[in-house]
Known about the structure:
The complex is a heterodimer of chains A (about 280) and B (about 375). With about 280 residues, chain A is an alpha/beta fold. Chain A has ten helices and eight strands. Chain B has about 375 residues and is α/β, with parallel strands linked by helices. In chain B, about 40% of the residues lie in helices and about 20% in strands. Chain B is built from 16 helices and 13 strands. Chain B is elongated and about 70 Å long. The model of chain B has no long low-confidence stretch (mean pLDDT about 95). The interface of A and B includes residues 15, 19, 47, 108 and 137 of A.
Amino acid sequence: MAVERSSIIITVFSTAPGVGKTLVATNFAAGLAKEGYNTCLIDLDLQFGDVENYLGFRGEYTLADARQALLEADARGIPRSQVDMTSFLTEWRKGNVGFAVLPAPHSITETYGLESRDVMDIVEGLRSFEYIVIDTTAVFSDLNMDMLDISTSIIFLGIMDFIPAIKNLKSGYDVLLRFDYEANKIRLVQNRSDSQKLVSQREVEKLFGREFYYNLPNDFPTARSSINFGVPAVLGTTHTKLGDSLWDLVGMFTNRPEAPKETTKPTGFFAKLSGLFR
Amino acid sequence: MAKKKDARWQVVVIEPDGDMQREIAATLDVTDEYEFLTKYPTAGAAISQSSVFQPNLFLMDVEAAENRRAIPEFTKAFPGTAILGTMSKWSNDIAMECAQHGALGCILKPFTGQELTDSIRVFEKRGTVGPTTTIAFFSPKGRSGKSTLLSNLALHLAKETGGAVGIIDADLQFGDQAMFYDAEPKYTILEAVRDINYVSPITLEPYFMPVAKNLRLLCCPKRPEYAELIDVASLTAVAHMAQSLFRYVLIDLPFGYSPFSVGMCEMADIIYLVGMMNTGFEVEHMKKALGIFEGWSYMKDMKVIFSRVQPCDETERRKLQKELEGFPTEIMPNEYLLLAAANSGRMGRGIKSDTLFAKKIAALAGEILAKGATP
């Protein structure tokens, strides 16, 4: 008998808001799906989630419905584990790439009384997925802390162009270490890494005491158009700096063999010229 | 009794309790700055007879409701004479009522001469007598530009009105105000909340760090996890007491709805709902946010402010306001100099007044002043 497998949970977290968590989370889900993994994306920005906005759809059901089902099960004395959580998912598809999404509640009143325990049970009910990607908010809440606890890996995302933001990232990162999260589990990813900065990357890395796991490029046009069109950059029809980097980053969370370097055939005048001397 | 030559204050004491009367009189007698003139048990007795003594300060027991209700009559009958309320147990409600009626402030009794002098100093610094305007800065999502807006508005109010301005950085986990002013606070909200039951406005003042002229800042805790130690009720008590110290109290909040942000908004006179233009979904988020505040519009001044709007003109402002179904909406331009100021802890220097951003701040301040002028 094969060993029972459980999902890999990747949580995209930060302690500075507006650094691109949702962009990275949606691209992760799309990238993993593109690789062929059975993937589910959960939006845990409960009040003002943007996953649906970034993916250009509106789900019939949200996390609020899933939670309602749990409450109804409680009322009827049915174990929560028997509620089929997958029935609240929406399949997002582009061409032959598809993944499941559990959107954030559509109204704020639906988030009242929503407890971390409920979300934990919902995630538990989605363990049949190979990958679960979780989008969060930039705050230490019970919910976020619980998600970090059950995560296989945490993408700790930051943009290092604004000193107060760097301060918040550093103090948040220190909290994670003080709370005994394994440093190995936390992957520092820098977004917009090649934008003009006041502080050098080396200085920031010195501050954090480690190197960035990955540096995403500053490719605003791609980010903007992918959000406007509701299609993650990793699924773009043309190569973009951002799309390629995100695809590369996703590969670092799977056992994807390194793609053979594309051999570029020499073309143009010099190529012809060099051909003469073969 | 020999008349004190250098006494700045000629004091009439209004106090029903005989022992307390004697104690206050004795304190005044031994303190150079004060000359004790006479005492009355009630405001009614004082208002009819005090003119004989030409006082310039009334120390009035304000725990008696009829006394504090008489404050407007005192300010009319004795123009230019200061009224300081006294209470044996601190009550923010009473303190606020006295301020509204025109008292300089309130202090706890009994007090020492030094405490009285410190109180008067702080209250005089607060600016013109009158109620405090409290402004809460709410944002649905993070990175809204609200902290920058707050800090510039605070500076403007402090500079232009001369009144004391207090900032409470209630963005408990990740507040940025201290950094904006390159401030290394000795005390933070954490200590203020811890001590709130043992302080009066005067002893609370040092928790607010001076960061610019007329501007003080109560910083957020030093570590994000300390936020857990702060409860809404205590923080509200701190904010209420701050209203006795400052003419304007500006409260920075964490993003989203939480007992904190809602509690702080509840005690504010003005709520700014701030969002930064970025992906365009901000308008949708704001609509959602307004849904929650809907029931409040009759009792609060509320305004949506979008930051980094481009182009920042009247057409754009109207367009956004229309999208929000006519809800009062203001827009702010991007201002790169602010980024540099925030990055270097130089926010306290202010920005050039000829920029569009500065003009918009001045306009907002104008509205706040107009509101403060009409009770």
